[in-house]
Amino acid sequence: MATPEAPRLDARLAAAAQLVKPGAAVADIGCDHGKLAIFLAVTGRAKRVIAADLRPGPLQTAADNCRRCGCEGAVELRLGDGLSVLAPGEADTIVLAGVSAKTTVDILAAAPWVKTPGTRLVCVPATKAPVLRRWLWEQGFDIEEERLALAAGRWYAAIGAVYTGETRRADWAECMFGRWRQLPGAEDYEAQLAQKVEKVLRGLEPGSPEWKEAAALNEQLRRPQGAEHGES
User: Fold this and answer.
1) Is the Cβ–Cβ distance between 30 and 52 less than 8 Å?
2) Strand partners, 29
3) Which of 85, 128, 180, 226 lies in disulfide reach of 78, CB 3.0 to 4.6 Å?
4) Is 129 strand, coil or helix?
5) How far apart are CA 84 and CA 79, in angstroms?
6) Torsion-angle region of residue 28: left (phi > 0), alpha (psi -120 to 50) or beta?
7) Angle at which helices 11-18 and 35-42 cross, to 10°
8) 129-138 and 101-109 helices cross at what angle (nearest 10)?
9) How far, in Å, CA of 69 to CA of 72, rounded?
10) Are 49 and 37 in contact (CB under 8 A)?
11) pLDDT band per the 50, 70, 90 thresholds, residue 223
């Protein structure tokens, strides 16, 4: 019997895999081709893996990839919308990689049971990571760590958070910078963010509160790292 073979992950999914704690029971929501779920199962990083998608097509692709990698029995495939495919407590780690921050928030908000002490989220938002960070902090999740990944010419932040129940209100600068500024790739990721903030600035009325907030963020993004702390 052939040994199951782990698929090759792009940098974005590899970053998500790194944020999964060994021995976790994982639900990969919006699994698409299923490669991350297969990787977690084949490498033994997860003790149980559920892979779910809203669309039959991608889920069939995931099933085909499971057969190709020889791990049909190691990944449980489910068809359904968001976290409706799970019963509370079935997974202690929920992965949401590749959808927008808004979609991520909508999926999580529709399942209040995720706010259980110890529940871990691994999120790789396709857009607006600061929006997701703010929501997580406001809902009682502690952002423990992040990873940066360059995939298809774009930088992504992979966010690992755990529910503690301690809510907090973070300003937009903290939401923008998260926990990635000391990570490899931070300079390039920061440059990408600066371009986005400059675009937002051009669409705001100069002097307005929104413009002032965006301008302050832009100044911080343009400032050399460490300068805000008086480092040489």
Assistant:
1) yes
2) 52, 96
3) 85
4) helix
5) 10
6) beta
7) 40
8) 30
9) 8
10) yes
11) low
Q: Which residues contact 143 (CB under 8 A, 6 or more apart)?
A: 133, 136, 137, 159, 160, 161, 178, 179
SS3 content of the chain, % helix, strand, coil (to 5): 40, 20, 35
When pLDDT is cut at 50, 70 and 90, the band that residue 231 belongs to is: very low
Strand partners, 147: 158
Q: Give the span between the Cα atoms of 176 and 193, in whole angstroms.
A: 9
Helix orientation angle between 35-42 and 56-69, rounded to the nearest 10 degrees: 30
Question: Is 60 exceeded by the pLDDT of residue 230?
Answer: no
Q: How many other CB atoms are there within 10 angstroms of residue 4's CB atom?
A: 16
Is this structure's pTM higher than 0.85?
Answer: yes
Strand runs labelled E in the chain? 24-29, 46-53, 75-79, 93-97, 120-124, 141-151, 154-163
CB-based contact 131:175 (threshold 8 Å)? yes
To which residue do tokens 């129940």 refer? 165
What are the structure tokens assigned to 200, written together?
């937002």
Dihedral pair phi/psi, residue 151, rounded to 5°: -135, 130
Dist. CA 105–CA 35, nearest whole Å: 23
Contact 96, 104 (CB under 8 A): yes
Q: Among all chains, which residue has been given the structure tokens 């755990």?
A: 162
Q: Transcribe 152-218 into DSSP letters.
A: TTEEEEEEEEEE-S------HHHHHHTTTTTSTTHHHHHHHHHHHHHHHHHTS-TTSHHHHHHHHHH
